[in-house]
Amino acid sequence: MTNCTLNVTLIGDGAIAKAILERLTNHAKLRITHVVVRAEKIAMTQAELEKISKGCTAVSHVPESAALVLECAGHSAIHEHVIPALERGVPCGIVSIGALSDEALVEALSRAASQGGTQVHLLSGAIGAIDALASAKLAGLDSVTYTGRKPPLGWKGSPAEDVCDLSAITQPTILLRAKAREASHLYPKNANVAATVSLAGLGLDHTEVTLIADPTITENIHEVEAHGAFGSFKLEMRGKPLPDNPKTSMLTVLSALRFLENQTSPITI
Question: Which residues are catalytic?
Fold first, then answer.
């Protein structure tokens, strides 16, 4: 860490990336210099960037000058952009943890980071107590369960639409009971929390997941319960969704901002 401004490259131009850009405008120590998008979107993204953040450039690949990369775009972006950046020695943060239900991708990230002599950071996103869960894992965990509840609108565009009529349900409806690997694979845009919890704890094949569409709530509710040699804990979080994307918790954006802030702060927690 230095007193210099840290230049950050964002991958993606969706709701999460835009919220990060807006919140970092005129930041004293952090500056988003590039936003990576598909080549055909560069002109449109550049026009949008000029309204939000001065001096930020839309590009199709992570620039050679990148000092830190933050991924906010999904599975394909990790393959296309994060892995090559890690191989060049650029530290990267990943928001799309659900993509890591693919074991081969986890191994590829590890190899790339080792080759580049750097690290890939998996952000906690919409869930808390990840530090406690990862610490408890060191002494041994017996069970970890995750239950995710969202309003029906939060499940639009997912396999939930094949399970029930999301616009017609009047009571909480279970969409899926499965291990975290299956949940993350079927609901990659909705079940990042399930993947995060499993990677911090017992793994994708030993973490029990229940996903629920609940018309009686307006918030995204995450419940994690863990038992092991450390004792036990039960966590409930009620996260407000991002206004521009009801599938995403506002805390996901705040988690990314905390990750970036920690890169320039003299004290981190």
Answer: 222
Domains 6-122 and 130-246 share a fold: no
**Are the C-beta atoms of 95 and 121 separated by less than 8 Å?**
no
C-alpha to C-alpha distance for 20 and 252, rounded to whole angstroms: 10
> How far, in Å, are 8, 15, 52, 108, 115 from residue 89 at the CA level?
14, 28, 29, 14, 8
Positions of the chain with pLDDT under 50: 1
What is the token pair recorded at 190?
A: 């909705």
Class of domain 130-246 as given by CATH: alpha beta
pTM of the model: 0.89
Domain 6-122: state its class: alpha beta
**Three-class SS state of 147:** strand
Q: Domain ranges in the chain?
A: 6-122, 130-246
Distances (CA, A) of 144 to 127, 168, 198: 14, 32, 8
CB 171 within 8 A of CB 215: yes
CA 168-171-173 angle, 5° bins: 85
**Count helices and strands in the chain by DSSP H and E runs:** 10, 13
